[in-house]
Amino acid sequence: MRNHLAKLIAFAFALVTVVPGVVAQAAKDAYPAMAPLDQYLIADEKSEIALARSAAPASISNAAEVMVLQRDGYKTVVTGTNGFVCLVERAWGQGTEDAEFWNPKMRAPHCFNAQAAKSFAQIYLLKTKLVLAGKSRSDIASAVVTALDNKQLPALEPGAMAYMMSRQQYLNDTGKAWHSHTMFFSPGDMTKSWAADDPNSPVMMVNDPQERVTILLVLADKWSDGTASAMH
């Protein structure tokens, strides 16, 4: 999960929370540091594969590459044939300033298309390596900036997108499953051309300055298993 989702969910729930500052402080205090690594791992590899695949409809995810988190990083355990890559992001997929950056409960299944897998997803995989190396939040943020500046990370490819349609997702302690949706990644501001954030538009937009991307989120009326997902 990325910083955009955390911000979007936090904003939505701030509208209905009487004391948002207290809630935010509680979240910050709850996860001040990384928990033991075992709390982020899923012991049963088959369960993690199934959870990763739940990010997209079976017509897509059954032919996708699947990566699972191991003690030394993400490893490909299923070879794909359609260019998609499915994995379960952990809490450090959020921005380094997010209060739940170390939340060990977070499980965010993504299925990236080929363009996103080769470009945008590489930021998350880099952050994972840094987390497992014991780096601090500030070190991770600096390393991502350096990698982007020095082009050690590939440029965002046109057409990059991802599915997040798993009803088993746990995005954070407030939003939890939130909504079934797809995400489209752009290096520019697509807000006006997509009518993002207009009243009753299913398209939402969040800019992520840390990862230098604009994300357009399109809500879906179904989870990946075909069951209904609330649009509001």
Describe the structure.
With 232 residues, the protein is an alpha+beta fold. It contains eight helices and eight strands. Helix 6 (121-132) crosses helix 7. The longest helix has 13 residues, at 137-149. It is globular, with a radius of gyration of 17 Å. The model is unreliable at 6-23 (pLDDT under 50).
Largest sheet: 8 strands, mixed
Calculate the mean pLDDT score and round it: 88
Q: In order across it, which strands form the biggest sheet? A: 2-1-3-4-5-6-8-7
SSE succession: HHHHEEEEHHHEEHEE
Radius of gyration from CA coordinates: 17 Å
What would you call the shape? globular
SS field, number of helical segments = 8
Specify the structural class: alpha+beta
Query: In which range does the helix fraction lie?
Result: 25-40%
Low-confidence stretches: 6-23
Q: Care to count the β-strands? A: 8
Query: How much of the sequence is in beta strands?
Result: 15-25%
- How widely separated are the two ends? 20 Å
